[in-house]
Amino acid sequence: MKRLYLVLCALALSSFALKAQEAADSVMVANLDSLHLTSSLPDSVLVSRLAALNPYFSLPFNDIVRNYMVSYSEKQTASMKRARSVSAYYFPIFEETFRRYSLPLELKYLAVVESKLNPTAMSRAGALGIWQFMYRTARAYGLKIDSFVDERMDVERSSDAAARYLQNLYSIFGDWPLAISAYNCGSGNVNKAIRRAGGKKDFWSVYPYLPRETRAYMPAFVGMMYAFAYGNSWAADTLEAYVPERVDTFEVHRNLHLGQVSEAVGVPLDQLKDLNPKYYNDVVPGAAGTCILIVPEEWSEAYMAVEPDSLYSHNASKYLSEQVVKDIAAGKSAGGGSKTCYVVRKGDTLSHIARRYRVSVKQLMTWNHLRSDRLSIGQKIYIY
User: Whole-prediction pTM value?
Assistant: First the structure.
């Protein structure tokens, strides 16, 4: 099986400058409701452009909507250029998924608001992946999360889950602005806001009663849709780090460690990790069912030239001994190692701690004998 992709996301995993820019963007966006941004265009042009957007998602023009339109199209050029450049890879995947569920294709812009199209993005609350799924919601929509795999970082699987989630939310509210708001804060909070608004079901009526961080969500979505429609003067950033332009995918039917692939084929290990982020402990668990391995296209011939038996047996005693596999399945980290004690702070979640130490939620729960994912400030979490 072979499929060519455009891959431009690895830089987001390793660039300090990118993280600094995203942090600055987040601070600015969080305060947009209290700012008045200046634009190079008169309001009359912004109003006419807003009116031309998809009526399912457009909002009446006001200072809040205006700020997001201006911010995403004129003020956040570095991060927006980056998102626009990687959209050539991600948007076709989103659109194919939304067509399958008869959903508006414009919903693809939610992923830009959520993660700036970074498949390994994690929020402070522990939401993970390009669609920013929390652990419980991900499991409810069938995403696999275990000691080996976290499908919240699988773009195709998480996009399918996001489509089903959005479809369900729209069936509840019958209104896309409210459904989109519920994607951010949950249907319970939106229903509560509707009750507090006297039963009114339009966005601006419930706006004052939504959680503070959710109030900005729909205006941000409209601002993002506007920026992609009218930001045609953007140019792609120059990517200095190695980023493969195309990749191939291969089926894996036995357990395979990324280290084995790196050594037997020659592919740099960091490239394999960046392209296959959903595999915890760098193990592709093919023995449990067919898995997909992504390899830079320039290494495809070298990968296919290695005999399968030679690939799977290469340093298997080091990477995939029977004990290593059992330890991972039982929730223990591969290769053993010393114990680390993490003290829970305000805002921490198991997902956040798991991502920080590159382990799974299941492993943390097993190591610490936890029956739920609820944490208390000051609680000690051990990582092995």
Answer: 0.76
